[in-house]
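Q: Got a minute? One more chain.
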Amino acid sequence: MNFRKKNVSGDPELNFIPLIDVLLVIIIFLAISTTFETFTELKINLPVSEGTSKKSKNNPVVVTITEDGRYSINDKILQVDTPKDLEIALKNRTEKDEKTAILIISADSRVDYQTIIHVMKVSQNSGFNKIKFSTTKD
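A: Always. Here it is, folded:
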């Protein structure tokens, strides 16, 4: 029986490979679970028409929306308070037998999109199947 202690010569080793593996997993977990928020503004250039205008067989109904929210139909200014009033005015302007009536929406560039959406919805309820937008020529 040998009861003597063995002399270990040399420094104790520290194995870094498992430590690196654990840290790498933690970094990947944090990177995936982090939500990234970016506050940027999009610069949008709205399209400009380059084509020629086509002549229609029938006279289209032109709804104009000014910057301050006033409506006019075929250059006649309307006193409209609700979208329902605009729908009634559009129904009065269209001919009942004309199924190919065209509506052209001409809005100021500073009009908010929700106003244009209301006009589109009202025009569909009024029986217009073809809706076009007027743009400026470049």
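A: Helices lie at 17-33, 83-93, 113-125.
Q: Perfect, thanks.
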